[in-house]
Predict the structure of ABC transporter permease.
Amino acid sequence: MRRLGERFTLLGPGLAYLTALMVVPLVLVLSYSIFQRGRFGGLVHEPTGENFARLFDPLYLDVLVTSVKLAGVTTVLALLLGYPTAYAITKLPPKWKTVALIALVLPFWTNFLIRTYAWIVLLSPAGLVNDALTGWGLIDEPLQLLYRRPAIVAGLLYAYLPLMVLPLCAALERMDDELLEAAANLGARPARAFLSVTLPLSLPAVITGCVFVFVPSIGNFVVPELLGGGQTAMVGNLVRDQFLKARDWPFGATLALAVVAMLVVLLMLQAWSARRLQGGRDA
């Protein structure tokens, strides 16, 4: 009993936190999803399966597909930019490595909304990007960079790129340099050593970074609203509108559950992939 009490003392705060901020909200959302919408909003406590049937409406499926595409493109670009960045950071001297990591996380010290508004200043017709292109003579008229899907991808990429770089930095930092020396001694060129040694050993961090970028990107509603001008709806915007504008709480809860279920499947695939990679490495 004393050992059980000690374990509860250690686990109690964490379990209470998870219960209050994750389990209880999920139970509430699940309970909302099975009821009907009232005439003027709110809930009518009459069970129905109509909310789940509405998920397969082409309108909502199109929003979900658009969200997956934008989040997927953001994740791929984050990987293409983040891997060389992380690799370069790990090769810096210790002093400059610390400076680079601080510069990487420095934007997180600023409010997310303010950082998103900064992109409006950059991409607007009278913004810095158009001014620079006009001043260099590359364009005659300002480009319409705002309120398009590339602007949404740029905003999401800027917001979540550090979430790709940090796990890659941690994985590459722990890598034994003697493995690369052994590959070189066996006649492997740098590119071959990277593909045969560095890349396979960093794959778990690659998968983790992709999950870290994809998950918040698909649920983001601030960036599509501000940089997309509300013209491109993502699933986060749809959930918000159902709760705050349409006052259709049951369907909003159903959409939220669908997103949570998809992300749980994604996290399970990530865990399974990490175990497979670790098992193959140990073998």
